[in-house]
Structures are given as C-alpha cells and as structure tokens.
Specification:
heterodimer, A: alpha/beta, Quinone Oxidoreductase, Chain A, domain 1, Rossmann fold, 2 domains, seven-stranded mixed sheet, six-stranded parallel sheet, B: alpha+beta, three-stranded antiparallel sheet, 6 helices, flat
Chain lengths: 392, 163
C-alpha cells in the first residue's frame, strides 16, 4: 500500500510499504478515507521527538471503514464507518477505568523509554515515534487498530466524514482542556493557539457555559475562523497587549481558566525570551519552548487553572514556578483521553453544536503529502489543517 | 611554590595521622563501628493488575508467564489498597547485577532482570486484556545507524524501563 513516511528532519515522502495485518485478536484493519495533519506532527518532523526512524508512517487523526476484524472483536463489524481515537488504550486497566485513557498501562508495547523519561509510560499513539509504541500512522491506505472495541467509534448517519474526522483527536483534546480545566458557567477562559485544538477547546468552553472565551494567536485568518465558526473573542498578540486586554475583559481578575494549545515550538509574543528559547532549543540545552505556557501562568487569575494541551516531550527552561505557587494555581496537562469523550462529541456533531469542517482548509490526495505538510507548517494559503484522502 | 607544596603535604600527613589515632581510640573505647557492608536485598519489581487476586491467581496458581521463570524468582501476590486490584511482584533470587556489569547481557537480551520485567508486563496485559499486545512492524526503514535507537527500543521496550 501507499503511505506517507518520515524521511528525515522536515522530509516526508509517499512510499510503498507492506500492508498492515491483524496481529492481535482484538485488532481491526481500517481502510483510511480521511487523515489529518496535526501540529504535533510538526514537532516530530522538526526532529524534536526522538526514536523516530526513516520510513516510519506518520499521522494519527483519521477516519475510515473497517475492512477486517480479528476474532476477539465483539462490538465492531466489517463495513462500519468509524472514527479512531489517536491514542491506543486497552480500556480495562485501572487508568482506563478511571477515564484516563492516554495513561493506559497496556497501549504502548515499548514503555521503557517513556518510563525512564517521565517516570511512568503513557499509552501508545499512531505514527508518533517508537517511544509511543512504534505504531504505523494513518497517512496510509490502511491502518491496523488494536483494542478496536475501545478505540473505534461508529460515526452517526448525518455526520459527514469531513466533520467526524476531527473527533479522532482535535475535538476530544480541546474538550478535555475545557473539561479537566474545570470550566464552569460564568468563567472567563483564555485559549492560547487558534489551530484546530485551540479552536475546539474554545468551542468546548462555550458549550460548558463559559461567559467569555478569548482566543490568542498571531494568525489573522485563524482568528477570523474563531470569530466566524467558534463564536469566541480573539486577540492577535502581534498587535495587542494581551495582558492588558485580558485584564480588561475579565474585570481585572484575569481568566479563570487558561488553556495552552500551542506546544513545544511556541513562537511567543515577548521578543528576547523567544530568541533565548530558540537558541537553547537548537543547542539541545532546552528541548521544548514553553512561551505560551509561561504566558498562561502569568495571566491566569489567582487560584485559577492552567491546562497544557500542547505537546511537550522534554525539558523547559524558565518555568514560572513562583507564580504557580504564590497565586495558588492548578496546573494540569494530558494527552487526550479520547475514548472518554468521542461518543458524546459525535452526538454534538450530529446536533450541529460542534462543527469542525472549516478546519480542513485543504483536501489533498496522499500523493501530495509533502506539499500538504509544507502548506500546513508554513500556514501558507491560509492552511489550518490539511486533510489527506488516501482513497483519491 | 615549593614551600607551599611541602606545607600542604605536611598538613595531609598530619590529618591522616590524626584520623588514624581517632579510629584506634574509638576501637579501644568500644565505640560501635560501621557494620560490614552486605549485598543489598534483591529488589522487588511490581505491577498492579486491575483484577481481584482470585482472578489473577486462582487457587494460588501463578500466571503462566511468572510460573515459567521457575526457581529464578520469588513471587508475591497481595491485594492493592483502595480497590486498585492486585499487586503482583517478583524478584530475582540471586539478586541483580549492577547496571554496568549487566550491560552486555541486556544488549543481547539475556539478562535475567529483563526476563522478569517482560514476564510481569505480559502477565498483567494478559490478565487485564486477554492477550499480549504486539507491536507494529511496518514502514520502509532498513537498518541504519540513525535508526539504531528505535531498533533497540523495539527489541527491549518491554523488558527495560523502570519496572
């Protein structure tokens, strides 16, 4: 089959790779019809995610049709149109039973490195390095999906593929930030990052009853999408004093919940600090750039919550622990617990409460994979997300 | 410069002599001395399985993955607190070698601690999910120096780590 493979730093190419096959009885094989680029792929392509090897198939946010099912699959059948959670979780360990699916004990067949790096291992993820399980990614014609009874979700009739595909990762990630960030009616919520995850975190905060939601970014097109499709307010940090605006819009209190949806290659708004981080990151003295996290912590109200949705893998520098401690903040973060939210999100999509198709600004055949990532990385041609169509 | 060196050497000799005198005096006075160094107790490796103990180990029978290790290990099964299931622990009867001395065996995949870790993880997975999850082995990558860390991880991802 054809698949989009990692070929080295900032290089991808479509290659012929072996077809996946059922390896465990609880696996299904999905014929991919839609597979989306994700901001976290850029960290991988930039070389900041170790244990990625040339020839690995990338991509983790996808939708398709089940074409083969293992003998142990009970609740899915061949022919179903399903969205697949980007994280591989068993559904039966203690963490899964608590709803902490991305902390699954069994979903990563290579837990050694993440255990050593983080103390304990996380679940597996499609197309996201051998440290996250070495699973082949979704930018391919077919994907093997383990624990299919727990990781695949039938798409309701009436929800288009173009909408449902974002229930694989962006929508549950965004919802989780608002939900576990503790957004309540009357809250003021600030979201850093107007990519797909940031937009859907903002929409989730609105649906959870937030009084005011403000999305911060530097890209005017993305911010116009926020205003048009999400219904949140916007701030462009290139032209605005973000701190002053947030104070004004929250009656001087600061946002109750701050959601960071940027990740380890943040550009940030304050000049010298950005340069400092970039130099240290290139020298591998600091592995991740956390400008947006710093800002979220700084601007969050006393006793408020900061939720880190953006992907970080290693160490950050100049972390404002003093602000966290003295303001009594709660700082949380997680990879997405999609299995907990996807059925509810698909229902909301069916009721048009959650619309996502505007995020897929570019649809391309898989053969144009390299161009799709160039558009996405450079945010060229107002690209928010590229959707690959392996069936084209 | 030479005078300084001589002074430093004299100070070192004097300090050493004083230390020796103190040690002899402590011994004569019957002060407790440091106990002889003993090899550390073998370390228990543990997983918590999200099942009650009678399902993990019916009639006291060990999961097959650990039973297969036979006399190599001691095994302990006990209830985890707070409804978290059952703690399944094992340790090597003959103890473990240091990280340095075990390195060649670990690279070859023949270190007993690797067998123990792998057995614990497989026993937990099998008990909780019914099978041991197998990794994907697709992609186009051939062997290369840059791919070596990922290759090593694929080979030892289950038998290394903090467990």
């Amino acid at each position: 089959m054809k698949a989009l493979c990692y070929e080295g730093v900032n290089q991808v190419a479509v290659r012929e790779v072996p077809d996946p096959r059922i390896r465990n009885s609880q696996d299904v094989i999905v014929r991919v019809t839609h597979s989306v680029t994700c901001g976290s792929d850029l960290h991988l392509l930039s070389g900041f995610v170790p244990f990625t090897r040339k020839g690995d198939v990338i991509g983790h946010e996808f939708l398709g049709e089940i074409v083969e099912a293992g003998t142990g699959v009970r609740n899915r059948r061949v022919g179903e149109r399903v969205v697949v959670c980007s994280f591989v979780s068993c559904g039966r360990c203690w963490y899964c039973r608590q709803g902490l699916f991305s902390c699954c004990d069994n979903g990563n067949p290579n837990p050694a490195i993440t255990e050593l790096a983080w103390g304990f291992g996380a679940a597996g993820c499609y197309g996201y390095s051998h440290a996250m399980g070495g699973y082949a990614g979704s930018h391919a014609q077919y994907v093997r999906v383990p624990y299919a009874d727990f990781g695949t979700f039938p798409v309701p009739d009436g929800v288009s593929d173009e909408r449902a595909v974002f229930a694989s990762d962006s929508a549950p990630t965004g919802w989780m930030g608002a939900d576990l960030g503790g957004v309540r009616p009357g809250d003021v919520v600030a979201v850093w990052g107007a990519g797909a995850v940031g937009q859907l975190a903002a929409r989730s905060a609105i649906l959870l009853g937030a009084e005011r939601v403000v999305v911060i970014d530097r890209n005017d097109f993305r911010l116009s999408q926020v205003e048009e499709h999400i219904g949140a307010e916007t701030l462009n940090y290139r032209h605005t004093d973000v701190g002053g605006e947030l104070l004004e819009r929250s009656g001087g209190r600061g946002p109750d919940v701050c959601i960071e949806a940027v990740g380890m290659e943040s550009h940030g708004s304050s000049g010298p600090e950005v340069l400092y981080d970039q130099v240290k990151q290139q020298l591998h003295i600091e592995t991740n750039r956390p400008s947006a996290v710093r800002e979220a912590i700084y601007h969050c109200r006393k006793g408020g919550t900061v939720f880190v949705l953006g992907v970080f893998v290693g160490l950050v520098d100049r972390f404002p622990l003093g602000a966290v401690m003295n303001k009594g903040l709660t700082v949380r973060g997680a990879q997405q617990h999609g299995q907990r939210y996807i059925p509810m999100l698909l229902d909301r999509m069916a009721r048009d409460e959650l619309t996502t198709e505007h995020l897929g600004t570019h649809e391309l055949p898989l053969a144009d994979g390299a161009r799709g990532y160039t558009l996405f990385k450079q945010q060229a041609d107002d690209c928010v997300r590229t959707v690959f169509r392996p069936d084209w | 410069m030479g005078t300084k060196r001589a002074a430093a050497a004299a100070a070192a000799v004097a300090a050493g002599g004083a230390g020796l005198r103190i040690a002899v005096a402590r011994k004569r006075a019957g002060w407790p001395t440091r106990p002889p160094r003993r090899p550390p107790e073998p370390h228990w490796h543990s997983v918590t399985v999200n099942l009650p103990s009678d399902r993990l180990s019916p009639d006291g029978r060990l999961p097959a993955e650990l039973a297969d290790l036979g006399d190599l290990v001691d095994v302990r099964v006990r209830q985890a607190p707070g409804g978290r299931g059952t703690e399944l622990s094992a340790r090597l009867r003959d103890g473990e070698r240091s990280a340095l001395s075990s390195a060649p065996g670990r690279l070859r995949g023949s270190d007993p601690a690797q067998r123990l870790r792998s057995a614990l993880r497989r026993a937990k997975q099998k008990a909780e999910t019914g099978e041991v999850l197998l990794a994907d082995r697709s992609g186009t990558g051939g062997r290369s120096l840059r791919g070596l860390p990922a290759d090593l991880l694929d080979r030892h991802g289950l038998d290394e780590g903090r467990l």
